From TrEMBL:
Cofactor: Mg(2+)
Binding-site residues for Mg(2+), renumbered to this chain: T17, D55, E116
EC code: 6.3.3.3
Biological process annotations from GO: biotin biosynthetic process
Reported function: Catalyzes a mechanistically unusual reaction, the ATP-dependent insertion of CO2 between the N7 and N8 nitrogen atoms of 7,8-diaminopelargonic acid (DAPA, also called 7,8-diammoniononanoate) to form a ureido ring.
Gene Ontology annotations for the cellular component aspect, listed alphabetically: cytosol
SUBUNIT field: Homodimer.
Keyword terms, alphabetized: ATP-binding, Biotin biosynthesis, Cytoplasm, Ligase, Magnesium, Metal-binding, Nucleotide-binding
Protein name per the record: ATP-dependent dethiobiotin synthetase BioD
Pfam families to which the protein is assigned, alphabetical: AAA_26
Subcellular locations according to the entry: Cytoplasm
Record lineage: Bacteria, Pseudomonadati, Pseudomonadota, Gammaproteobacteria, Lysobacterales
Binding-site positions, ATP: G13, V14, G15, K16, T17, H18, D55, E116, G117, V118, G119
Length: 229
């Protein structure tokens, strides 16, 4: 069975997709076969007669195993707003079963299935579906992307507490630089390492391309941490 990772963040806009791409490439460089999915994506455009999302397309491209878009992104919602609102606008109900079916197809032949969530950990996927529900059903380990900015200590500690309270295994955290000149960046990083219980798995510099971002992560160590090696 493929190892399964659920990538969440301390908030929306903290670089979950960029980190996910980097993870896929870093692990791919070690020879691990990967598939990826963004089960629910709001903010889609009509391309080739199909609603598609840029983040989902980026994950599809970074995975080493190419899969059908409809499995990579089972719920593609046009409006760029909270999934619950976007789903209501198109009279859609987001449910677990289609996501689990897509994940099963994606995982065939894969060593790793990476699943990217929406917003922060407590952002609902649907009216009756929380991210913890899906991560638990898929038997995922969680990686927390910490957006490095003012307030990140609070956001990171609260997120870690919530993930653990939901009973999910937290593999570690990855820092994501959101500005080129974040004051006291080294001090914040030191505090995060000291105060978070889960291990630090790497940090991505500000606005690096995905290849450079992948090089900032230690693919061999990552594989060991999540049980691939």
């Amino acid at each position: 069975m493929a190892t399964r990772l659920f990538v969440t963040g301390t908030d929306t806009g903290v670089g979950k997709t960029h980190v996910s791409q980097a993870l896929l490439l870093a692990l791919g460089s070690q020879g691990w076969r990967s598939a990826a999915m963004k089960p629910v994506a709001s903010g889609c455009t009509l391309q080739h007669g199909q609603w598609q999302n840029d983040d989902a397309l980026a994950l599809q491209a970074a995975a080493s195993l190419q899969r059908d878009y409809v499995d990579v992104n089972p719920y593609a919602l046009p409006e760029p707003t909270a999934p619950q609102i976007a789903a209501r606008r198109v009279d859609c109900r987001i449910e677990m079963a289609p996501v689990l079916s897509a994940a099963q197809r994606l995982a065939v032949g894969a060593d790793l299935l990476l699943v990217e969530g929406v917003g922060g950990w407590m952002a609902p996927l649907g009216d009756a579906l929380m991210q913890a529900d899906l991560a638990r059903a898929l038997n995922c380990q969680v990686i927390l992307v910490v957006g490095l900015r003012l307030g990140c200590l609070n956001h990171a500690l609260l997120s870690e507490r919530a993930i653990r309270a939901d009973g999910l295994p937290l593999a570690g955290w990855i820092g994501s630089a959101l500005a080129p000149d974040f004051a006291h960046a080294a001090d914040y990083h030191q505090l995060l390492e000291q105060q978070l219980e889960c291990p630090w798995l790497g940090s991505l510099p500000f606005q690096t391309d995905v290849s450079q971002a992948a090089q900032a992560l230690d693919g061999r160590r990552l594989a060991g941490v999540i049980g691939l090696a």
